[in-house]
Amino acid sequence: MLDFVQQLVSGIALGCVYGLIALGFVLVYKATEVVNFAQGDLMMLGGFFAFTFIGMIGLNYWLGFAGAVIAMAAFGMLAERVVVRPILGYPQFSIIMATIGLGYFLRSVVGMIWGTDDFKIETPFSDGVLRIGSLVLAYDKLSVIAATVILCALLYLFFNRTTLGTAMRASSENMLAAYYMGIPVKRVVSIVWAISAAVATAAGVLLAPITFIHSNVGLVLGLKAFPAAVLGGFGSIPGAVVGGVLIGVIESMAGFYLPQGWKDVAPYIVLLVVLLLKPEGLFGIHTRKKV
Amino acid sequence: MRFLFKTDYEDDIRLFPHSGYVVSYGILLAFLAIAPFVLSSYLVSQLVFVCIYATVGVGLMILTGFTGQASLGHAAFLAIGAYTAAYLQQYNVPFPVYFLAGGLLTGVVGALVGFPALRLTGIYLVIATISFAFIVEEVLARWESVTHGNEGMRVKTLSLFGQAVPQNGPAFYFLCLGVLILTIIGTLNLLRSPTGRAFVAIRDSETAARSMGVNVSLYKVKSFAISAAITGLAGVLFAHKLSFISPEMFTLQLSIEFIIVILIGGTFSLHGAVLGAIFLVMIDPFLTYLKDDLPGIISGIFATFGADSVTASKIHSNVAAIASANGLKGAIYGVIIVLFVLFEPLGLYGRWLKIKLFFQLFPLYKRATFKRQKIYVKSERNR
């Protein structure tokens, strides 16, 4: 039983990281209908920025965290301006390819600058553990869970309660109509990319004590975050986090109870089954086809 | 300028619309026939890879370019073809039999993947095919009684009608070239048949195709099966070319390379698959060239413009450091993909058509002829 709870908590913590990356996918998708395959790589880059600020320059953890988030928000805007804006309105497939290209580029440039070793960021949560009875919970995992809940709630409120959030949802439904209604669509898209890069950075920094950061971490985790986003329905913010947690728990349970090898494929098997039974995901909105 | 007057449907679907095609393809064929005897063995080996990649490209083109179903899982189909060959070869099955068996088995798997894919479109389909590829990769690594797991499998030299066909000799090159040419001709015939027309109709509008009486599900599954079968055939050749296969060769990276092939070549014509394959395979020799010669060239240029020898040698070592940095290939791939998507969405073949039209219409060529239409209104979610 204790093993089960232990696995459950570490699964939830891992799942929250997937959920945070999936949140980035969902944000961009909700606002622009673009699927950003480079989301995992943005996370990786954010982690490296934080590593530079904290580990190399020696800033305070929170200052470095904030610096990395701001730097990455700017980078997200830049990436949107250079890669995505010229092809907005073209078929999804071209945009997917463009972001795959961006991911390739980021991975190898990071590899060239920082090298291909594993890096670690010292955090205030690195070593401590919380004991409840005989249950041992590491602070770094708890910090990921807490941060995910807070970020998710903030983003949910932002999208549903603020004018800017409503504008984002409107421009995702129909860019042209949103433009006619006086929404500055281009600026909205820029802001969404900034937010999603910032969320990715938060994921990267929180993840750093758990899995370390290296130039391929974004690819590995980004591909796990896809099933999370799809499970949640790809357009739903709480859905992304729930999907992420499900994937994380499934992976952690499969690693513990099933024979070797199931751990890596279990999320994808679940994904395929869900897509077969409910193609719009668990929280997706079913839309009718129009000619 | 040449005007083609088409008086009936037979004129419209001709493989060679006019004599110019026969001449230019004849010259190309003659060049390919003498290539292994005049080119270096390294280049011939690269040409074999071009043929294999182009065959996969043609298969992927049927699915992605003509039926409009994106797939990032074609490395898995290639793996199934390759492993079928390696497995059957242990039991002394002759090449023609396991070649066809590889294609057939992969086609059946492709059809099985096609069924779940019926309900999926766009991004969901991409993710489902990625998941499929991951599962196949893991199965290959774990099913040790058949695939020998991560140790991989050795593939013996191909023997055809009692003759050994070593993977570096000209005979193997001609085999791959023959498979490619037959695949292309078969695909061209398929595309001008009702089946091919149905594929294109589904790509352009699924709803419209259905209301015209096209059985969308049937043709989607057919497209998956045909595309997978062609990839499986290429997989058999791939296994022989490498003479050793293991699961980590068939990763997502390879699937992405196949997509790059058709994207860079141009996703609307079979020419694109071949041009894209040439581009992707020949980038390796080009990068080697960059590593060896670029530093000398650049420092030479600076020296001629009056830089002293110390600066020149500094430039030389800096350029050499950049050119031989790890992961340069990835960065170049990334930049190339982004540039093609942004500036040449029709790919290399589209560029060739533009150049051709420019000279045909000179001086009346308009850039707007090839302008893509942006769709801001329709959300793909509601389509």
Describe this structure in words.
The complex is a heterodimer of chains A (291) and B (383). Chain A is mainly alpha-helical and 291 residues long. Helices cover 75% and strands 3% of the residues of chain A. Chain A has eleven helices and two strands, in the order ααααββααααααα. Chain A starts with a helix and ends in a 14-residue tail after the last helix. The model of chain A has no long low-confidence stretch (mean pLDDT 83). By secondary structure, chain B is mostly helical. In chain B, strands 1-4 form a two-stranded antiparallel sheet. In chain B, strand 2 and strand 3 form a beta hairpin. The longest helix of chain B has 35 residues, at 270-304.
Give a brief rundown of this model.
The complex is a heterodimer of chains A (291) and B (383). Chain A contains eleven helices and two strands, in the order H-H-H-H-E-E-H-H-H-H-H-H-H.
Walk me through the topology.
The complex is a heterodimer of chains A (291) and B (383).
Chain A: H1 2-32, H2 39-57, H3 61-84, H4 92-114, E1 129-132, E2 135-138, H5 139-161, H6 163-173, H7 175-180, H8 185-211, H9 217-232, H10 237-257, H11 262-277
Antiparallel strand pairs in A: 1-2
Helix pairs in contact in A: 1-5, 1-6, 1-8, 1-9, 1-10, 2-3, 2-4, 2-8, 2-9, 3-8, 5-6, 5-8, 6-8, 9-10, 9-11, 10-11
Chain B: H1 9-12, H2 19-38, H3 41-66, H4 74-89, H5 95-117, H6 122-142, H7 144-147, E1 153-154, E2 158-160, E3 163-165, H8 170-191, H9 194-204, H10 206-211, H11 216-242, E4 244-245, H12 252-265, H13 270-304, H14 309-323, H15 328-343, H16 347-361
Antiparallel strand pairs in B: 1-4, 2-3
Distance between the termini of chain B: 41 Å
Main sheet: strands, sense, barrel of chain A = 2 strands, antiparallel
The assigned structural class of chain A equals mainly alpha
Structural class of chain B: mainly alpha
Q: Please indicate the percent range of residues of chain B in DSSP E strands (runs of 2 or more).
A: under 5%
Q: For the residues shown, what is the average pLDDT of chain A?
A: 83
What is the tally of beta strands of chain A?
A: 2
Could you tell me the strand content of chain A as a percent range?
under 5%
